[in-house]
Design brief:
Blueprint lengths: L7 H5 E2 L10 E2 L9 H14 L11 H22 L3 H17 L7 H16 L6 H7 L6 H14 L10 H8 L6 H17 L4 H15 L11 H17 L5 H5 L13
Antiparallel strand pairs: 1-2
Helix pairs in contact: 2-8, 3-4, 4-5, 5-7, 6-7, 8-9, 9-11, 10-11
Organism: Echinostoma caproni
Keywords: Cyclin
Protein name: CYCLIN domain-containing protein
Amino acid sequence: METSGRSVYEQEVDQSNDPPGSVPQPLYDPYFSANEKVIQDLLLDERRYHSTPGYCFRQPRATAKWMRRTLLNWLRDIYRHRNADAGVLSHAAQLTDRYLHVVPTDRHEYQLVGGTCYLVASKLNDALPATAVDMAHYMADSAKPGDIRAKEMTICIALQWDLTCITPVDFVAPVIEFLEFAPSLKKIIRQRALNTYVKAFHGKPLVQNFYIENVHDICRPETPRRLFNLPLTLMKLTLGLRFIYQRQECSLLQFVTPLNHNYHVLFLI
């Protein structure tokens, strides 16, 4: 008989330190936890939805890259202000890139497109999503809520209502489930990986390729059961993203090789 005053559901879900708009997730799922097929399916879907960086129409390459980085940093500020899930931020950037590849966009509408994509991502991922009024406030009223709703419809139609995205954030939890650590320790590793991704978010194409390539190494079809090197691979992911963020031109292997068995460095980043 339960005597702690908490329901069985409350004891089986991880509700601590979650964003206010997130849905409580179970600590263990008999199918999705440590299931290699889940990662294989994610890799297949990632190739389907992957998009290269999208830039504004008729802009010099250097200017377009600077504009994209500025937009991503602005979206990251919104994500932090709302204390949202990292998947919302990554999903918004993916939707923005996909839309810019389909519809030529003038630079005057760039912020409107990015903010509207964040609105769509928030609706798909948050239990308490952002509203058009919220996004208009973040844009300093440069766009009215009606303009945002109209752009939202345009984006949905341009993408043929296929708004699903597979991002690097989707791989973090399934991969970490293979580690034979306590649930509390897995949570620390997962949070550190997400924090590092958010820090290096402005370099998303490089970060995403780094994540996906290493996940491919973990889950090669010809060696589905050989996961003995998973902690080292996760360490490479975290250290590699850290060096990307710090813009250091040093070889990752120079730092990873001496640390093959020092997995605790994951928690120091």
